Amino acid sequence: MSYTPASADQLLAIKVNAGIAGLAAHERYAAAEPELVEAIVEGIGAFAAGEWAPLNRIGDTEGARLENGVVRLPDGFAEAYRAYVAQGWNAIAGPVEHGGQGLPFALACAVLENLGTANLAFSLLPILTVGAVEALEHHGSAGQQATYLSRLVSGEWSGTMNLTEPQAGSDVGALRTTATPIGEGEHSGKYRIAGQKIFITWGEHELTANIVHLVLARTPGSPEGSRGISLFLVPKFLPDADGTLGQRNDLRAVSLEHKLGIHASPTCVMSYGDHGNCIGELVGRENDGLRAMFTMMNSARINVGAQGVMLAERAMQQAIAYAQDRVQSPRAGSPDRAPVAIIEHPDVRRMVLRMKALTEGGRALLYYTAGQVDRGTLGDGDAKARADLLVPLLKAWGSDVGMEVSSLGIQVHGGMGFIEESGAAQHFRDARIPPIYEGTNGIQAADLVTRKLPLDNGGVFAALMAEMERDTADAPALAGLVKDCAEIGGWMLRDASLDDRLAGSVAFCTMCAVAVAGWQLLRQARAVEAGEAPALAETKPVTVRFFLERIVPEARGLLASATGGAGLLYQLDAKALGG
Ligand SMILES: Cc1cc2nc3c(=O)[nH]c(=O)nc-3n(C[C@H](O)[C@H](O)[C@H](O)COP(=O)(O)OP(=O)(O)OC[C@H]3O[C@@H](n4cnc5c(N)ncnc54)[C@H](O)[C@@H]3O)c2cc1C
Q1: How far, in Å, CA of 391 to CA of 370, rounded?
Q2: Nearest-angstrom CA–CA distance, 402 and 355
């Protein structure tokens, strides 16, 4: 139940979709030379497959446990995390001035992709830490950066993200945790935090010396709703300015959730300030917390879209191995009546190719988005805006791909897929969370049609559509999908009511994501044809063709859902729907 790192396809995506050579042409990313890029992709692949993948199963069966306030993980996790930190993998894209390597985000994505394919639940720990680094890098004070960043960059300390409360899920503005200024004494200028957060990923554990909680809370008299939210840095242990750990802060994990999947990731109910003495520092400006948290959420959303790719890769590899081995019936269309491996049957072929095409499409979209983020970091405003547009597409569709592919993985296994022993079920259970957290996929689609589509009066969307239109003339179905997306986008911007836009948002989001993924796969196929990635010369043209000829036309079939409007959805009132 191990796996082989998808290094060749990752390298192709990093080259073609992220455009690593263009990034390395800038001084900031000059170190991202081809040899280093290859060394990173192959090195992290070997590390993840060798050290983290073997813990995936035990992480699922034993999971994280809370014992007397301490989170215990199965044997091997602490050593595997130490090895990860010691080898410097956490620091790949971290700021150089704080001990990071300052490499492109696209390479950090490759690191996380490998870790998450090996062990999704475990990979949430570095994903959140990397998000915390970004939030502090952009919004922290010089003092906060000096104390916290180098330790978060190395992975010596970990980060968490605390938004959710029982009454405040998708509606973050409903949160009630409070932050009261401290006027005098040792902690003068800081805040006392009080409240309860739920579903906090890796909220408590002992793999790192300190845990840096980034907590959204309200200061006294702050405006209602999301305009009155501030961001606070709340460490488990209060450090001195030089980072020496001092007193334990007044915060604790009350309980761990019992979940469908990602059992090795402790999902904590966190209580802050039981004894009135939980100390936090304001990050950025008061009442500006959501904007600061969004810095963290954007990269987290990309990484959650990537989780779909991670699980899809793992599930696909396992299903293919099973399909090559399991023998059932002769192939119906063959004169040979000897039973064959199930991979010889047309419907299993369909499933396997679909799994491959969706996984590679998700990866192409992931690295394309990451490359746009990197260009944005280099000062390209158009690329930054395009990345903003792509984030909900990747988060929603990428995580949907994880679900579909891991479900197909079970189907390929037949009855054995439903039996936990086979391991296929774990991927499916783990894959159910990415469409929910980091803003549900419904919320992503709403973000697309209410915030991203209108960016620059629709200019950001129109530029993407125009570029795809120019570049897809040799792929008629894809060109048709691009035209559909452009027309629906125009209708949504000009004519559709808000209800109609939201009613069609999920279908529209899928159509746009499939269009961009198909376009990026087409670019991969051209590069392979031109001699890039010879190891993929045989498979890539076939998976791309499958994507363009089977998956793209299905996405075009969503047109009616995208444009059908809200009328039918409200024909029955809420009571009648339950009757
Ligand atoms: C395993 C796990 C780990 C998590 N980790 C973290 C973490 O580390 N930090 C953290 O802060 N949170 C975390 N979360 C919380 C997660 O982000 C929320 O569960 C998620 O945002 C959804 O909120 P909710 O559960 O309250 O669902 P609700 O907001 O109640 O949504 C329920 C349904 O209604 C839909 N819905 C709600 N509002 C709207 C609307 N306005 N328009 C359209 N549809 C809507 C949703 O799409 C969803 O389908 C985690 C959750 C889980 C399960």
Answers
A1: 9
A2: 9
In this structure, the number of other CB atoms found within 10 A of the CB of residue 220 comes to 8
In a 10 Å sphere around its CB, with 0-12 CB exposed, 13-18 middle and 19+ buried, how is residue 327 labelled?
A: exposed
How far does the centroid of ligand 1 lie from the alpha carbon of residue 269, in Å?
A: 15
Residue 349 CA neighbour count, 13 Å, CB half: 7
- Characterize the bridge pairing of strands 211-217 and 158-162: parallel
User: How far apart are alpha carbons 282 and 230 in whole angstroms?
Assistant: 7
**Cα–Cα dist 540/448, whole Å:** 30
Report CA torsion sign: 389, 390, 396, 397. Answer: positive
Residue 425 contacts residue 419 (beta carbons within 8 Å):
yes
Between CA 468 and CA 514 the distance in angstroms is: 12
- Is residue 27 part of the annotated active site? The answer reads no
Q: Please state the separation of Cα 387 from the chain's center in Å.
A: 14
How far, in Å, is the centroid of ligand 1 from the Cα of 160?
Answer: 16
Q: Retrieve residue 493's tokens.
A: 């911007």
CA dihedral 279, 284, 288, 290 (to 10 degrees): -80
Could you identify the atom of ligand 1 that is nearest to the CA of residue 168?
26
Token pair listed for 225: 């709703």
Q: CB–CB of 480/556 below 8 Å?
A: yes
- The first and second tokens of residue 417, run together, are 């897929």
Q: How far apart are CA 407 and CA 312, in angstroms?
A: 9
Within 8 A by CB and 6+ apart from 36, the residues are 103
Question: What pLDDT digit, counting tens, does each position of 426-465 carry?
Answer: 999 999 999 999 999 999 999 999 999 999 999 999 999 9
Nearest-atom number in ligand 1 for the CA of 169 is 26
Instruction: For residue range 257-275, list pLDDT tens digits in order.
Output: 999 999 999 999 999 999 9
Q: Are 260 and 420 in contact (CB under 8 A)?
A: no
pTM of the model: 0.98
pLDDT digits (tens, 9 = 90+) for 514-559: 999 999 999 999 999 999 999 999 999 999 999 999 999 999 999 9
- 444 CA → ligand 1 middle, Å: 11
At residue 11, what is the residue type? Answer: L
